[in-house]
Structure formats: structure tokens, C-alpha cells
Amino acid sequence: MKIFSGIQPSGTLHIGNYLGAIKNWVKLQQDNDCVFCIVDLHAITVAYDAKKMPQRIFELAVDLLACGISPQKSILFVQSDVKEHTELGWILSTITPLAELERMTQYKDKSGQHKENINAGLLCYPTLMAADILLYQTQAVPVGQDQKQHVELTRTIAHKFNNTFGETFVIPKPLIYNTGAKVMSLTDPTKKMSKSAGPDSYIALIDEPKIIAKKLAKAVTDPARKRIADKGHPEKCNIFTLHQLFSPAKQISKIDKDCQSAKIGCVGCKKILTKNIAQELAPFRAKRQELLVSPQTVKDILANGAKQAQNQASSMASKVKQVMGLGLSS
Ligand code: AQP
Questions:
Q1: 21, CA 20 to 30 Å: which among 180, 300, 323, 329?
Q2: Is 27 an active-site residue?
Q3: Would the pTM count as exceeding 0.85?
Q4: Are 304 and 71 in contact (CB under 8 A)?
């Protein structure tokens, strides 16, 4: 199956990005034709520091490789290195109704968060994302729950294009896994964990065990449980949800029972979770250190990935322009 997915160089990767996206990418690349993209053009839709962007892109590439993305199995590249993304993004914006873009949840959230900078790029984020996906004849797009709406809009745009100009694009489907599709914020479990919401709200993949312990110690738990003697409600506790994502099955059912019968308190529960998260992330941290000292290797991987992506993207972009009657080539 042809797979495409992207991730923004908008800050440190957190366990939400890992569980909702990257961990699945690593599995998918075993038996599928995968294209993974560092979407820098998406990341500039909010205010950012241009001087820091190259380092952010580099570190995101390092992190993806350290998580297990393999350049032998997948194409890994930076979006702005393949100009067809912006070209097709513009083309698709001309067939996308404004009302469809205005009803996107991410647009509403981000324009609320960045009132001083509600730019057209923020609104057109989904048409650029549709271009990212459709350029590669993508069949499935592994994403977290938050991006499902954008993939559905991509399908609508692709259908509209095919109906207007003739069968051109493969219609992609979102690939959302039950586990980890929406990891919630540590400080406000009613919101999804997000890079831009501040370091206390997430556990970063680079966090040392001590930092993980500190962040979890402050994390919001079952609001009804005020004292250790109160019986807990694991189903209402974000910490228990994280146990379900990081702890072994036997331990999860013990914590479930012990919490309900007040045998274990939040402090004990968080200590076990700290250990389990730190253990799962240890190989990532070690691999990351190795890659950080070989910047040229990482840059070569991205340059080679861009070449391969460009080959595929340029033939699709030519086809699109041809069916639309654009340019000299048509
Ligand atoms: N909390 C989450 N739970 C599960 N999956 C998540 N993803 C993001 N947050 C969670 C998934 O990670 C992939 C990459 O996301 P992105 O960086 O492109 O953009 P995002 O969804 O906007 O991620 P953030 O962390 O919230 O970044 P900022 O704060 O910069 O906007 C996507 O597949 C996403 O679903």
C-alpha cells in the first residue's frame, strides 16, 4: 500500500506524536511503500523564528530516524525541498470552497490561539496538506485523531478534481489506530497533547527520566480523588490512560484494581508510569545521541529522500497541469 504522512518541525516531539503517528509509521514501513515528510511549509503558518528553523528541521529528522524510520525502507524528506507541494497546493485551493476551510477545527483552534496572526496560510493549511498527500498517489494516511478531518477534506477535494478534470488522483483514506490516536495534555486532559502548548503539558521523547517524573508529578489526575483513602476512578484519569499506552497488561489490570480499592495512590501510580515511559524511550535517546554527532549523514538522507520524492511528485504535477490545460507542456 502507498502511505504518506507528515509532521511539522514546530517543536520537540512528544509522546502524542509518537503514539498517534511515528510508532505506526515505523511498523507500516515494513510492508508498505512509505513517504514521510517534514512539513516545514505548514510550520510557518504560525509565528516562528527563521534562525531556529534549520536546527528544528535537522533535529526532527534525527528524531524520526532515532524512532526507527529507515531510509532504506522509506522516503524521508523536507517539504519545501520539493516545489510541487506548493504548486499543487495553489491549484487545489482554486477548487476548494472557502466554507470548507473555515469549518476546519484546527483552523478555528489555531486562529483562536494566534489572534494577532490569522494569515491565509493558516486557512489554506488543508489544501497544502491535500497536495502533500495527493502528489504521491497515496492510499492511506496514518494520522492521529486530530488530523482526520483534514484527510477527509483531502478526499472531498480529490473527488471534486477527478469529477471535474477526469480520473487523476487516488482517493486516500485516513489510517487511525485505536491505541494512542488522541493522547491528552498533562495539564489539561480535556485538550490533546500539543507541541505548542508548553513543556509541562507534554512528555517529550527527549525527556530524561528525572524530567518525566517531574512532569508527571504535576500532571492532572482523577479530579474526584482528593485523598489517598478515596477510591479512584481509573477510567476518568489521564495517568491511567497513559498506563494503558506504556505499561504491561498485567500491571495495568493490577493498577486498575488497586486504584479502585484505594490500595495505590496517585504518587505510586505516577512512579510506575515514569519507569515504564523512561524504559520505552531509552533506545530512542541512545540512537538520537549517535545521530546528533553525524549531521552530514542525516543531511544526505534528507537530500536523497528529496530526490526520490521529487521524481514521483513531478510526474503527478505534470499530469495535473496537463488535464487542467495549464502551461506549455499541455
Ligand atoms: N496528542 C496527540 N495524540 C495523538 N496523535 C497526535 N498527533 C499530534 N498530537 C497528537 C499526531 O502527530 C502527527 C504530527 O503532528 P504535527 O506535528 O504535524 O501537527 P499537530 O497535530 O498539530 O501536532 P502538535 O503536537 O499539536 O503540534 P503543534 O502544537 O505545532 O500544532 C499527526 O499525525 C498528528 O495527528
A1: 300
A2: no
A3: yes
A4: yes
Which member of 27, 73, 110, 307 is catalytic?
Answer: 110
The grid cell for 231 is: 477510591
| Topology of domain 2-182+294-324, CATH | Rossmann fold (3.40.50)
Residue 115 falls in the annotated catalytic set: no
CATH code for the structural domain at 195-288: 1.10.240.10
Q: Which atom of ligand 1 is nearest to the CA of 142?
A: 33
From 23, 192, 215, 270, active-site residue: 192
Decide if 195 is catalytic: yes
Are 129 and 4 spatial neighbours (Cβ–Cβ below 8 Å)? no
Q: What is the DSSP string of 221-284?
A: --TT--STTSPP-GGG-HHHHHHHHHS-HHHHHHHHHHHHTTSS-HHHHHHHHHHHHHHHHHHH
| pLDDT tens digit at each of 330 positions of the chain | 999 999 999 989 999 999 989 999 999 999 999 999 999 999 999 999 999 999 999 999 999 999 999 999 999 999 999 999 999 999 999 999 999 999 999 999 999 988 999 999 999 999 999 999 999 999 999 998 999 999 999 999 999 999 999 999 999 999 999 888 899 999 999 999 998 788 999 999 999 999 999 999 999 998 777 777 777 788 889 999 999 999 999 999 999 998 888 888 889 999 999 999 999 999 999 999 999 999 999 999 999 999 999 999 999 999 999 999 999 865
Domain boundaries along the sequence of the chain:
2-182+294-324, 195-288
Q: In what order do the strands lie in the sheet with 173-175?
A: 74-78, 33-38, 2-7, 140-142, 173-175
